[in-house]
């Protein structure tokens, strides 16, 4: 369901006019198990009354845990830790609906700040709606996924897509691992032995070579030199990223655009199985 709201109306009306769509998914059959729920909002903001260009499209969803027992104190801690880590201290105690409305409000304010003055000036100088440049049209998408990972760990993934008038849109993914018993966010130093960094990077390098060969439909890349011929790892060394997921099948290491390769190469999800990486992980 989409609400088309003119930007000249108040910000409060614009945000509350969004459609909040809740949904919950039971993770297992245990009566006291928390549910993964999602709230969503989908709206379009226009700069000019009566015209459908330019516009700012906002499509957001946010996943969280809904306790199914009154004595569940861990789920609220997990939600607070996720919101603080992803969005900042100000979001820590917000309800999920409030998280979405605040994010939408911020995007609307940013859109007005970026383009409203320029657009008004262009229209004053005779620009017709049909001639509005494409960069006046912004788009924000935020998608999240929460699922049970390895051995009492929640996996949380946020994918943030933005087009704000540049040469191309930008997509950034953030991965979190949360201890299901304490609600603590697990950092890489909590999981991996620092003294084994070189060994872990060798395992990741093997997966990077496999993935590059798969994308190019070849088997000729066997070393760092071959990767660099494809523009990968030209300006950086391979490292253990802060973005990783302790999934059920293995540890997935996530590299966003530009981190180890040019934008054209895309992002990389490289999974190392537990049989190989377990010796280098903390117990």
UniProtKB/TrEMBL annotation:
Top-level division of the source organism's lineage: Bacteria
Pfam families: DUF3298 (PF11738)
Gene3D superfamilies: Fervidobacterium nodosum Rt17-B1 like, Heat-shock cognate protein, ATPase
DUF3298 domain segment(s): 189-275
Annotated protein name in UniProt: RsiV family protein
């Amino acid at each position: 369901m989409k609400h088309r709201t003119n930007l000249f109306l108040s910000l409060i009306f614009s945000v509350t006019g969004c459609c909040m769509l809740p949904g919950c998914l039971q993770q297992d059959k245990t009566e006291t198990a928390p549910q993964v729920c999602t709230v969503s909002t989908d709206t379009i903001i226009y700069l000019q009354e009566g015209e459908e260009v330019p516009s700012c499209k906002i499509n957001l969803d946010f996943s969280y845990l809904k306790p199914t027992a009154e004595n569940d104190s861990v789920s609220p801690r997990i939600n607070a830790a996720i919101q603080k880590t992803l969005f900042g201290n100000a979001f820590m105690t917000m309800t999920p609906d409030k998280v979405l409305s605040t994010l939408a409000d911020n995007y609307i304010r940013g859109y007005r700040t970026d383009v409203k003055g320029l657009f008004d000036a262009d229209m004053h100088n005779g620009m017709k709606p049909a001639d509005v440049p494409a960069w006046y049209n912004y788009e924000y998408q935020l998608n999240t996924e929460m699922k049970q990972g390895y051995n009492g760990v929640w996996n949380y993934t946020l994918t943030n897509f933005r087009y704000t008038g540049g040469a191309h849109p930008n997509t950034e993914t953030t991965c979190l691992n949360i201890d299901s018993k304490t609600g603590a966010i697990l950092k890489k130093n909590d999981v991996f032995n620092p003294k084994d960094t070189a060994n872990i990077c060798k395992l990741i390098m093997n997966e990077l070579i496999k993935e590059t060969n798969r994308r190019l439909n070849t088997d000729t890349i066997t070393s760092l030199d071959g990767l660099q011929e494809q523009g990968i790892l030209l300006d950086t060394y391979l490292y253990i990223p802060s973005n990783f997921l302790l999934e059920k099948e293995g540890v997935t290491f996530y590299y966003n655009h530009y981190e180890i390769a040019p934008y054209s190469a895309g992002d990389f999800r490289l999974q190392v199985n537990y049989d190989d990486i377990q010796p280098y992980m903390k117990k």
